[in-house]
Every structure is written in structure tokens, then in C-alpha cells.
Design brief:
It is a single chain. With 233 residues, the chain is an alpha/beta fold. It has one domain: Vaccinia Virus protein VP39 (Rossmann fold), CATH 3.40.50. The protein has six helices and nine strands, in the order ααββαβαβαββαβββ. β4 (92-97), α5 and β5 (118-122) form a beta-alpha-beta unit. The longest helix has 13 residues, at 100-112. The radius of gyration is 16 Å and the shape is globular. The structure holds S-adenosyl-L-homocysteine. S-adenosyl-L-homocysteine (SAH) binds at residues 49-52, 57, 75-76, 78-79, 81-82, 96-99, 102, 124-126, 141-142, 195, 197-199, 202, 227.
């Protein structure tokens, strides 16, 4: 998978390729899907969520330009797979998941694969993790309507935020925001499809008379269960 789906495309960062090589993805997928663990596609993990496609995990890690001494925040733990990869690249990783159930299973998988530098928290990650800030890099694995101010505010000087932005819940672009002093610059990376970020700085509004069940990830245009799908090269 690493050679065929990553290195043969545009994943050229040797540290990212080595990290992808070293994390056993089968620990992060449901038992009945273990046979598909090394296919380059997203897979369902319960609660209407999915583990991201390996290519997109690698791409986000590469574009976040993570150094070995970095403190990194991931928003949207899901299976914990992306956090495990970030854990191999950075000094310390905090990852936030809004579903308690997913967070618990991710914690178990991370423990089983020896990711001792990854901390899993339950909460609304659209607000970041103020108690652990500042971060050298923040990776968001669900699409927000706009770049959340709270996340930019938690970046160290020179810090990078990699996040899918899709104002209407449909067309999404992966962007990188880099903070330099008082300024920040924004770069378009590619078009993508992720599940929506549900939260105060995500798609958080519940209209009067409308109810949302826990686990219903409906964005403004209905459920989305296909995070981490990039356009064909
Ligand atoms: N990185 C994951 C993929 C996660 S899919 C992996 O490697 O498996 C996106 C995840 O974001 C889902 O689990 C969803 O529940 C979570 N999510 C959505 N909005 C969130 C929020 N505001 N805070 C934390 N997690 C959120």
C-alpha cells in the first residue's frame, strides 16, 4: 500500500512514508473489515463515521510539515489511525473526538500499537484544546464551514493548520493556514470530501423544531460518511 498508493503518487516525505509503514492499520478497523485494512479507501468504524483513506492521512501529515519535536493537535480522532501516524512523526499528540464510544475504542487501539505519546480527549474539537495549546500543527479530519478562529489562535508562531473547508457542506477544499507573527497565509491544497465537523465552530446549529440524534452526522445537506476521499490524480 505504501509503495503503490502513497509513494507512487505525491507522498514524497520519507518520514511520512516510514510512519505509514510502521502503523498497523488492521488494529484500527472493525474485526470484520480487517481483510480490507490495506486497501486505499475509507472504511466504516461505527457511529456513522469512517477511518480515513490512507492516502489522505499521509497527505495531511505531509502538508502539516510535522517535525520530530512538534506538539500536534488532531480534531476528529475517529478510529485513532490518523493520530497513531501523527504520533510517529511528532513529539506529542492531542486528539479530540466528540463521540465517547469512538474515543474509547481509539484509546484501546492506540495503546495496543504502542502510541504512548498520543492523548485522546472527548469534546468539541472545533474549539481546539486550549489547555494544551500552543501547537506547532493542527490537523482537522472533518469539514468546517470556515476556518475556525479558535484553532488559528492555538497555533504557535510558524504553526500550520490543515483543514477541509466546505461552506455549503458539498464542495470542499483542503487548505493549509500558516501563522507568521500577526499574519496568516492560506494555501489551497486539493479538493476533498470529509464528514462534517459538528460543533461550535463547525456545522453546529440545530434549528428550532429540529432534533439531532447522537450519532447522526447530518450536515446541512444530509449525512456524509466518506471522509478522506481525494479527487483522482
Ligand atoms: N482521523 C480519523 C477519521 C475521522 S472521521 C481516522 O483516522 O480514523 C471524522 C471524525 O471527526 C469522526 O469520528 C467525527 O465523530 C469527528 N468529529 C466531528 N466533529 C467533531 C468535533 N467538533 N470535535 C471532535 N470530533 C469531531
Amino acid at each position: 500500500m505504501v509503495a503503490h498508493d502513497l509513494a507512487a503518487r505525491d507522498i514524497h516525505d520519507e518520514r511520512v512514508l516510514a510512519a505509514m509503514e510502521s502503523v498497523p492499520r488492521e488494529h484500527f478497523v472493525p474485526e470484520d473489515l480487517v481483510d480490507a485494512a490495506y486497501e486505499d479507501r475509507p472504511l466504516p468504524i461505527g457511529a456513522g463515521q469512517t477511518i480515513s483513506q490512507p492516502y489522505i492521512v499521509a497527505l495531511m501529515a505531509q502538508e502539516a510539515r510535522i517535525g520530530a519535536a512538534d506538539r500536534v493537535l488532531e480534531v476528529g480522532t475517529g478510529s485513532g489511525y490518523g493520530a497513531a501516524v501523527l504520533g510517529r512523526l511528532a513529539a506529542e499528540v492531542w486528539t479530540v473526538e466528540r463521540h465517547e464510544d469512538l474515543a474509547r475504542r481509539a484509546r484501546e487501539a492506540l495503546e495496543a500499537t504502542g502510541a504512548g505519546n498520543v492523548h485522546v480527549d472527548v469534546g468539541d474539537g472545533s474549539l481546539g484544546a486550549p489547555d494544551s495549546a500552543p501547537f506547532d500543527a493542527i490537523v482537522v479530519t472533518a469539514a468546517a464551514p470556515a476556518v475556525p478562529d479558535a484553532l488559528v489562535a492555538q497555533l504557535a508562531d510558524g504553526g500550520r493548520l490543515v483543514i477541509p473547508i466546505g461552506p455549503d457542506g458539498h464542495a470542499q477544499e483542503l487548505v493549509r493556514v500558516t501563522v507568521r507573527g500577526e499574519h496568516s497565509e492560506r494555501a489551497h491544497l486539493c479538493d476533498v470530501r470529509f464528514v462534517p465537523l459538528i460543533g461550535a465552530e463547525g456545522f453546529g446549529r440545530i434549528h428550532p423544531g429540529q432534533q439531532r440524534r447522537d450519532g447522526d452526522e447530518s450536515g446541512p445537506d444530509g449525512p456524509r460518511t466518506d471522509p478522506g476521499t481525494p479527487p483522482e490524480p
